[in-house]
Amino acid sequence: MKKIITLSLAALVGLSANFSANAATTLDDLLREVRNQEQLQKQVNAQREAEFRSNKATQERKLRDARAKLAQAEATANSLQAQFQANELKLTELETELRAKQGNLGELFGVVRQSANSIQGDLKASIISAQYPGRDALLDGLNTSGTPSMQELRNFYVLLLQEMTEQAKTTSFTADVVNKEGLTESKTVKRIGAFNLLESGEYLVYEDGDISELQVQPGAKVLGTLNDYSGVSAGYGSLYVDPSKGGILQIQKLKIGLFERLTTVKYMGVAGIAVAILLTIGLIIFVISFISLFVVTGPAISAQKKSSTPKNNPLGRIMKVYLANKNEDTENLELKLDEAVLKETPKIERGINLIKVIAAVGPLLGLLGTVTGMIDVFQSITLHGTGDPRIMADGISKALVTTVWGLICAIPLTLLHAVVSGKSKNIIHTLEEQSTGLMAQHEENNG
Asked: Tell me, what DSSP letter sits at residue 293?
C-alpha cells in the first residue's frame, strides 16, 4: 500500500509538471494534451494495479506462514503444558517419597534450623567472633527451609563445639582495632574466654563486627588488676571480667563520676553555683584571717610579751594606753584598759563570724536546690509518667548534687571556723590576761 500511494503521488506530480510545461495555445492542443495525459494516467493505474496484486499474493503467503507458525507454537505450548503437569505430579510424588524417607529427620532439621536461628545473634555478638570473623555465614544457609546437607550439619556441630571450647581459653591474636580517634590500627589483642578483650593495659569492646577502644575506661581499681594480670607470665592472676560480654563496659560511656557531676553546671544548678561561690568566699576569708592571726598578730603579741617597749600590735597598743594613763586611779585605768581591749577585739575577730554564717547558709541553699529539683522531677512524672525510671533517677541525682555542695560548704568551713575562732579567743584571752597583769602591777606600784 505504501508503494501504491507513492506511485500515485509521483504520477500526479509528473502530470502536473508536464501540463504546466507544455501549456496549450489552442483548443486542439488542449484536447490533445488532455488525451495524452489520460493515456498516461491509465498506464500508471495499470502499473499500480499490477503491483497491488503482486503484493497481495505476497501478503497472503506471509499470512499462511504466520498461521502455520502459530499452529506449531500452539502445539509446542500444549506439549509443554502437558510436560509441566506431568512434572508437577512427579515432583509431588518425589516430595512425598522424600518425606517418607526422611521420617524423623524432618523434625531433626526443624530443630537444626531453630537452633541456628536462635544462636545466630549470639554468635555475631560473641567476642570469639572477633578472632574468627565470618563464622555466622554457615547459619544463613541453615536458616532456609531447604534440607541441610550432611556437610552443613557437621560444620554446624563443629561451630557449636568451637564456641564452647574457646570460652575456656585465653589467647592472643592480631586484629584491626578502632582507636578513640576513629582510626584503624593493627594490634595484638588478648582474649579472655568469651568475656573480655585486652590491649596495652586497657579494655576493648567488640560491637557490630569491629573491635574498638573504650572512650571511658573503668576505674583505677579495675585497671590496676588488669596491669597485674598482664604482668603474670605463669600461674594465676587476678582480673575483673565482664560476665555480660561487653555490656557493663559499654555502660562506662554513660557513666559520670562524682567529681564531674559536682563540677558540671548542668547538675549544679543555680543553688549549687551559689553554694560554690559562698564556699570560695568563706575560704578566702579564712585565708585572710589565718594569715592575720597566725602569721601577723599571734607572733607579734608573743614577741610583745617579752618586751617592755610598746610596738604596733594589739598588746603594744594596750600597753601604750597603760603608760599614758598610769597616773590615773585604779578604776579609771581599768576602764581605759577594758576599752582598749574592746577596741582591739573587732579587729581580731574580723570575718570569723562571716565564716560561721556561710557554713550555716550553705546547707540551706543546698537543701533549697534539692527541693526545687524534686519539684521538677515530680512535675515530669505528672506529665510523662514513670515509664522510664532512668529519667526520674537522673532528675533525682541532679537534685541531690546541690545537697552535696551544701555539705561540702558546711563541713570544711565549720572546721576552719573552729580553728580561727579558737585562735582569736586565745589572742583576746592573752590581751585580757596582760591587761589584768598591768592592773595588778599598777596596784603594786601604788602600795
From this structure: I
